[in-house]
Design a protein that fits this description.
With about 270 residues, the chain is an alpha/beta fold. The protein has eight helices and seven strands, in the order βαβαβαβαβαβααβα. The strands form two sheets. The protein has a five-stranded parallel beta sheet, with helices on both faces. It has a two-stranded antiparallel sheet with strand order 6-7.
Length: about 270
Amino acid sequence: MKMTSLRLERAYLPDVRRMLESGNVIAIVPIGSTEQHGPHLPFGTDAIIAEFVSLEVADRLRDKLNILVVPTIRFGCSAEHMDFPGTLSLRPETMISLIKDVCASLSAHGIKKIVLLNAHGGNTSLLKGIIHQLRREIDALVVVVDTWSILSGILAEVRESPTGGAVHAGEAETSLMLALDESLVKWAEAHSELPWTDSENRYFRIEKPRYVSFSWCTADVSRSGVIGDPTKANREKGRRVLNFMIDAICEILEELSRIDLTRESKP
């Protein structure tokens, strides 16, 4: 059986029908944000990363799996950045309704494997919190793949900045954008930003243990909007990080494709 990948916003009805008829379709929903990234990265950085990675994964797996890439969700929960003009933030209940409606639509068309590919840290907890209820409501297996969690597997190998240097528009994100589209990075501005200052606390700091969460705002630690050190970024790091991320997501989707969602009769 021939497999393929489709970008839904550029696909045509017969193409989608053929894909659905062939079965075992995985839908990828890229999710980002529209929020400030300091003077050197654009507001759409998270959405740009989510979309690029989703399309690259679909392309690499086009001969192995049926993958439908849904139009990118370019808004997220960005309350932490609302002190900076231009940031657009959804209320959690709005974001939940949006994700539920998108997933319900896909499920109604027979797509029962949905990957929420998220590239904005402010969305992560919310997305993870709704997937079990979604399984019950729409009878689909919904998976959250968080790009920044994946990066923890390689960040220690490539980073030169100290703790906190890769949080937001810092070393890692700037490296990624240099690899994706260098023209979108204002490199001179990256070297002229005001420094950010994180807390000396062990737990109540921005780059903190994963088992601690608190309601920090970017303005608590940064006047420029940057939390990290973009001067340590380069394109080669970005390429390494990007390939690591894409390889990991390809593995996840290949395993997802093998999962049998046939449910046994209830006792």
